[in-house]
Specification:
about 425 residues, alpha/beta, 21-stranded parallel β-sheet, Pectate Lyase C-like
């Protein structure tokens, strides 16, 4: 069964005004006022409030004062509801990271790295809601650790490059994991994009960087691949180190590139995510997520395949996602681990996901590994896997944290072309099975 495509229109958060009467004997009146605020007929507003005042006026003059204020507020809200929505759109604040936030471009000194990292984090936690942040066509350097939470209606446009560097000391966050390069959680209505790719030149991205693909190797022949797009670069080679020795030294103690936790209504488009130290897009418990016209690249060389040298940049997953109502389309991925992986949800269920028109090479289009949770209604279709290490890949594990069995159901792979797989074209079984 093909899951329904989620509603991709960017919605405004609908807020309810709740009236709080700070009076110790007014609990019954508070209920009455809340009911009045939801009545559609203004005439009923006046009649109902008049009844309350008539029964209360001789008992408490303070109560009369509060009710009169609420009559005025309810009337104004109902008369101007549509105007207020339009006014919020017109009042969106647009910030330039360099001019308005005093970010420092084209400078990777330690002082600039610290300054830019703190500036970006401060912005996310003070000004991001109902605003747009613009990065000009320059390179901005950061350390991992950019963090924002409880953000509403935020748009970020990357015209140049955001490049991350390995600090002398890696810090862990409140999940006891290395701080991701960028972490946003408990937020809604988020757009991460390039400014206007439709009007861009035909260069790969316009600022001297390439997306890891060229005419001599795997290349996606689509309009978006030639459009000017912003780059978010994890500088993974700083962490991958000497092949295999670097992996043994750090294992997975490396930062993810972009992490979203418990976010709703997210759009990621027209970007190049390059060389993540660990996972590229790590997206937990999403509700209504769309990713489109985006490239994910993690590789040591430009070889036309996955040699051992490239594979030593292990665990560089492309898109790992859990949650509900996910739509990923028109995306190209070249990594040294799972290209796309549908993951366990911390809330118990991952469902209704559609992945189509994906061009990828790595460890395949994956479901798993799945432990004690449910994955349901997942579709991969109309996609190409070129010289991928694995192709179609479903993997399972014993969940030591949940005392329940996992369930995977209604998974469809349709019209998937696999060209010269380097290990298994189709594998269903334990994770990281190396038997040939």
């Amino acid at each position: 069964m093909t899951p329904p495509i989620p509603n991709q229109s960017k919605t405004k958060r609908e807020t309810q005004n709740t009236f709080y009467v700070q009076y110790k004997r007014a609990s019954t009146v508070r209920t009455s006022i809340t009911l009045v605020s939801s009545l559609p007929n203004k005439a009923l507003h006046y009649w109902y409030l008049y009844t309350i005042m008539h029964r209360s006026i001789f008992r408490n003059t303070f109560l009369l004062f509060v009710l009169v204020i609420n009559i005025t507020f309810s009337k104004g809200e109902n008369d101007n509801e549509n105007d207020n929505e339009n006014e919020n759109d017109n009042q969106r604040q647009v910030y330039d990271f360099e001019e308005d936030c005093l970010g420092i471009p084209n400078n990777f000194s330690k002082a600039a790295l610290i300054h830019n990292t703190n500036t970006f984090t401060d912005f996310l936690n003070t000004n991001a809601s109902y605003s747009s942040l613009y990065f000009a066509d320059k390179t901005y350097h950061f350390y991992p650790g950019i963090y924002g939470q409880q953000i509403i209606d935020f748009e970020m446009y990357v015209n140049g490059t955001l490049r991350f560097h390995r600090p002398n000391e890696t810090y862990v966050n409140h999940y006891d994991r290395p701080e991701p390069c960028i972490l946003i959680e408990d937020s809604e209505d988020i757009i991460i994009s390039s400014p206007d790719p439709a009007s861009s030149s035909d260069s790969a991205n316009g600022n001297g960087d390439d997306n890891g693909n060229n005419d001599d190797e795997y290349f996606i022949d689509t309009a978006y691949a030639n459009a000017k797009r912003g780059i978010i670069d994890g500088h993974g080679s700083d962490y991958w180190g000497i092949p295999f020795i670097g992996y043994v030294q750090l294992i997975e103690f490396r930062p993810d590139l972009l992490v979203l936790n418990r976010t709703t209504n997210v759009l990621i488009e027209y970007l190049i995510f390059r060389d993540a130290p660990l996972y590229t897009l790590h997206l937990h418990d999403q509700e209504n997520l769309e990713i489109r016209y985006t490239s994910v690249v993690a590789r040591r060389t430009h070889d036309d395949g996955h040699n051992l040298y490239d594979l030593s940049a292990f665990n560089t997953d492309g898109i790992d996602v859990s949650g509900n109502d996910v739509y990923v389309h028109d995306v190209d991925i070249w990594t040294q681990d799972d290209c796309i992986a549908v993951k366990d949800s911390f809330l118990g269920v991952s469902s209704n996901m559609l992945f189509e028109r994906i061009h990828a090479s790595g460890l395949g289009l994956t479901v798993g590994s799945i432990g004690g949770t449910t994955v349901s209604n997942i579709t991969f279709r109309d996609s190409l896997l070129y010289r991928s290490y694995k192709g179609i890949y479903m993997k399972f594990r014993v969940d030591i944290y949940r005392d329940t069995a996992g369930l995977v159901e209604n998974v469809l792979y349709e019209n998937i072309t696999i060209v010269e797989p380097e290990q298994w074209g189709i594998w269903i079984g334990p994770a990281q099975q190396a038997i040939r």
